[in-house]
Specification:
CATH class of the largest domain: Alpha Beta
Helix content: 40-55%
Largest sheet: 6 strands, parallel
Order of helices and strands: EEHHHHEHEHEHHEHEEH
Number of strands: 8
Strand content: 5-15%
Number of helices: 10
CATH architecture of the largest domain: 3-Layer(aba) Sandwich
Distance between the termini: 21 Å
Structural class: alpha/beta
Shape: globular
Number of domains: 2
CATH superfamily of the largest domain: HAD superfamily/HAD-like
Strand order of the largest sheet: 5-4-1-6-7-8
Length: 252
């Protein structure tokens, strides 16, 4: 689905990485295009999206959040920030004017009713495969801003599990709602680092956003790589890669 080209001038030194911690949303799952289109169509705007369009729309929305949070000192957990994601997301698939506003309002209404679980169900299979490969050469864990269902989502989507079994074994699955801490607060990474038993400076974090993931991991003293498959953050100085398989290749 994505380019395998490395998108940063500062390569990751695999010998400096002892473990890898992953975000979930934007790494393994993104909003399901079928569910998104159904919500928008129910609001009166006919919309169809292919999986590739949904993939690109998500990362376009992420860039819009970056721009907004660079300009404002607010947190990604502020639901108002997601209007900018939605504007870019739906704009990238051709909506404009009143139709765009209607689509944004429909998505915002679902988000404010906490009806988001059914939205974030489109699996990025190539990234899950890359995660499985990495889990054979480095211990792994999950740290995610979630609604209390991260462990079950990992099972449902075939990502990982905490016990021995058919899926890759994670040292920890840290869910912000369960622990009561959200990224970018660096404290959310502590349980995962403790479970892995690795030094934070040698524990790589993988996420898709700048403010929650890059800033949060850096504040925790961790190296970090942003998944940026459309190469939309070339004006930033942190490590970026197009996908998890590209990281798997680097880590051997």
């Amino acid at each position: 689905m994505t380019s395998r080209a490395f998108t940063d001038t500062a390569p990751i030194d695999p010998s400096a990485i002892d473990a890898v911690v992953f975000d979930m949303g934007g790494v393994f799952i993104i909003p399901n295009p079928v569910a998104v289109c159904a919500a928008v169509t129910a609001a009166g705007v006919t919309l169809e999206m292919s999986p590739q369009q949904a993939h690109d729309a998500h990362y376009t929305g992420v860039r819009a959040i970056t721009d907004r949070l660079d300009a404002e000192h607010v947190d990604e957990t502020d639901l108002g920030v997601w209007r900018h994601y939605d504007m870019a997301y739906f704009g990238s698939v051709g909506l404009s004017g009143p139709e765009l506003e209607t689509a944004v309002a429909a998505r915002d209404a679902l988000r404010r009713r906490d009806e988001v679980t059914d939205m974030w169900t489109h699996v990025l299979a190539h990234n899950i495969a890359g995660f499985a490969a990495i889990s054979t050469v480095r211990p792994v864990a999950i740290v995610t801003n979630n609604i209390g269902t991260a462990e079950q989502q990992c099972l449902d989507h075939g990502i990982c599990q905490l016990s021995d079994g058919p899926l890759p074994k994670a040292a920890a699955i840290i869910d912000s709602t369960i622990v009561g801490i959200s990224k970018p607060d660096p404290a959310i990474f502590e349980p995962a680092i403790s479970a892995l038993g690795t030094d934070r400076s040698r524990t790589l974090y993988v996420g898709d956003t700048v403010h929650a993931d890059v800033h949060g991991a850096r504040a925790a003293g961790m190296p970090v790589v942003q998944l940026d498959p459309l190469n939309l953050h070339s004006d930033h100085d942190h490590w970026r890669l197009p996908d998890v398989p590209a990281l798997a290749e680097i880590l051997g």
